[in-house]
Specification:
Length: about 140
Protein backbone atom coordinates (compact mmCIF):
# COMPACT_ATOMS: atom_id res chain seq x y z
CA UNK A 1 0.00 0.00 0.00
CA UNK A 2 1.08 3.63 -0.36
CA UNK A 3 2.38 5.81 2.48
CA UNK A 4 0.14 8.44 4.02
CA UNK A 5 2.53 11.33 4.63
CA UNK A 6 1.04 14.66 5.72
CA UNK A 7 1.23 17.34 3.05
CA UNK A 8 3.29 19.67 5.25
CA UNK A 9 6.07 17.12 5.70
CA UNK A 10 6.31 16.48 1.99
CA UNK A 11 6.61 20.19 1.31
CA UNK A 12 8.91 21.62 3.98
CA UNK A 13 8.59 25.17 2.62
CA UNK A 14 4.98 25.28 3.74
CA UNK A 15 6.21 25.68 7.34
CA UNK A 16 8.50 28.59 6.52
CA UNK A 17 7.24 31.82 8.07
CA UNK A 18 9.88 34.59 7.87
CA UNK A 19 8.04 36.83 10.33
CA UNK A 20 7.81 34.13 13.01
CA UNK A 21 11.43 33.17 12.43
CA UNK A 22 12.62 36.79 12.81
CA UNK A 23 10.59 37.21 15.99
CA UNK A 24 12.14 34.06 17.46
CA UNK A 25 15.62 35.28 16.41
CA UNK A 26 15.02 38.59 18.21
CA UNK A 27 13.91 36.81 21.38
CA UNK A 28 16.96 34.53 21.33
CA UNK A 29 19.37 37.38 20.56
CA UNK A 30 18.11 40.01 23.01
CA UNK A 31 16.62 37.73 25.65
CA UNK A 32 14.47 39.34 28.31
CA UNK A 33 16.09 42.77 28.26
CA UNK A 34 13.92 45.42 29.89
CA UNK A 35 12.59 48.18 27.72
CA UNK A 36 14.29 51.55 27.85
CA UNK A 37 11.20 53.19 29.25
CA UNK A 38 9.24 53.10 32.44
CA UNK A 39 5.60 52.18 32.86
CA UNK A 40 3.00 54.86 33.53
CA UNK A 41 -0.67 54.97 34.44
CA UNK A 42 -2.80 58.01 33.65
CA UNK A 43 -6.15 58.40 35.37
CA UNK A 44 -8.85 61.01 34.78
CA UNK A 45 -9.79 62.33 38.23
CA UNK A 46 -12.38 64.85 37.05
CA UNK A 47 -10.72 68.25 37.50
CA UNK A 48 -7.23 66.82 36.91
CA UNK A 49 -5.31 63.95 35.41
CA UNK A 50 -3.21 61.82 37.74
CA UNK A 51 -0.05 60.32 36.26
CA UNK A 52 1.81 57.58 38.13
CA UNK A 53 5.21 56.47 36.83
CA UNK A 54 7.02 53.42 38.19
CA UNK A 55 10.64 54.38 38.89
CA UNK A 56 11.89 51.84 41.44
CA UNK A 57 15.45 52.20 42.65
CA UNK A 58 15.81 55.84 41.66
CA UNK A 59 16.57 58.65 44.08
CA UNK A 60 14.51 61.82 43.94
CA UNK A 61 17.62 63.71 42.82
CA UNK A 62 17.97 61.43 39.78
CA UNK A 63 14.56 62.38 38.36
CA UNK A 64 13.90 65.50 36.26
CA UNK A 65 10.51 66.74 35.11
CA UNK A 66 10.47 69.36 32.36
CA UNK A 67 7.52 71.24 30.90
CA UNK A 68 8.30 72.83 27.57
CA UNK A 69 5.35 74.19 25.66
CA UNK A 70 2.73 71.44 25.54
CA UNK A 71 5.20 68.63 26.23
CA UNK A 72 5.90 67.14 29.66
CA UNK A 73 9.11 65.09 29.79
CA UNK A 74 10.12 62.84 32.67
CA UNK A 75 13.77 61.75 32.77
CA UNK A 76 15.43 59.41 35.22
CA UNK A 77 19.11 58.57 35.23
CA UNK A 78 20.84 55.88 37.25
CA UNK A 79 24.54 55.65 38.06
CA UNK A 80 25.71 52.79 40.22
CA UNK A 81 29.00 51.18 41.10
CA UNK A 82 29.95 48.40 43.43
CA UNK A 83 33.33 46.83 43.95
CA UNK A 84 34.78 44.20 46.18
CA UNK A 85 38.49 43.66 46.75
CA UNK A 86 40.42 40.96 48.48
CA UNK A 87 43.01 41.61 51.22
CA UNK A 88 45.71 42.40 48.65
CA UNK A 89 43.58 45.04 46.97
CA UNK A 90 42.83 42.96 43.88
CA UNK A 91 39.37 43.10 42.45
CA UNK A 92 37.10 40.18 43.09
CA UNK A 93 34.14 41.90 41.43
CA UNK A 94 33.61 45.38 40.09
CA UNK A 95 30.30 46.25 38.51
CA UNK A 96 28.92 49.44 37.04
CA UNK A 97 25.48 50.18 35.72
CA UNK A 98 24.28 53.31 33.98
CA UNK A 99 20.94 53.91 32.45
CA UNK A 100 18.76 56.78 31.33
CA UNK A 101 15.02 56.57 30.89
CA UNK A 102 12.78 59.18 29.33
CA UNK A 103 9.10 59.55 28.46
CA UNK A 104 7.29 62.53 26.95
CA UNK A 105 3.60 63.34 27.14
CA UNK A 106 1.36 65.81 25.33
CA UNK A 107 -0.16 68.08 27.98
CA UNK A 108 -2.32 70.28 25.80
CA UNK A 109 -5.24 71.37 27.95
CA UNK A 110 -3.28 71.26 31.22
CA UNK A 111 -2.64 74.20 33.56
CA UNK A 112 1.15 74.02 33.37
CA UNK A 113 1.75 76.38 36.31
CA UNK A 114 -0.34 74.21 38.68
CA UNK A 115 1.27 70.80 38.04
CA UNK A 116 2.49 69.12 41.24
CA UNK A 117 4.79 66.13 41.74
CA UNK A 118 5.49 63.70 44.58
CA UNK A 119 7.90 60.77 44.74
CA UNK A 120 7.63 57.98 47.29
CA UNK A 121 8.37 54.25 47.33
CA UNK A 122 9.56 54.20 43.72
CA UNK A 123 6.41 55.81 42.32
CA UNK A 124 6.34 59.31 40.86
CA UNK A 125 2.87 60.90 41.10
CA UNK A 126 1.96 63.97 39.08
CA UNK A 127 -1.28 65.90 39.38
CA UNK A 128 -2.08 67.69 36.12
CA UNK A 129 -5.02 70.11 36.58
CA UNK A 130 -7.16 70.49 33.47
CA UNK A 131 -7.79 73.84 31.83
CA UNK A 132 -11.38 74.89 31.83
CA UNK A 133 -13.04 74.28 28.52
CA UNK A 134 -13.16 77.56 26.67
CA UNK A 135 -16.63 78.27 25.43
CA UNK A 136 -16.74 79.76 21.98
CA UNK A 137 -17.50 83.46 22.15
CA UNK A 138 -20.81 84.34 20.65
CA UNK A 139 -22.02 87.68 19.44
CA UNK A 140 -24.71 89.02 17.25
CA UNK A 141 -23.71 90.59 13.98
CA UNK A 142 -25.50 93.61 12.73
CA UNK A 143 -26.69 93.57 9.18
CA UNK A 144 -25.57 96.55 7.13
Amino acid sequence: MFDLIPFERRHGMMNFNPFRDMEEFEKRFFGDMPLSEFKTDIRDAGAAFELEADLPGFKKEDIAIDLEGDVLTIRAERHGESEEKDKKGNYITRERCYGAFSRSFDVTGIKADEVTAQYADGVLKLTLPKKEAALPASRRLEIQ
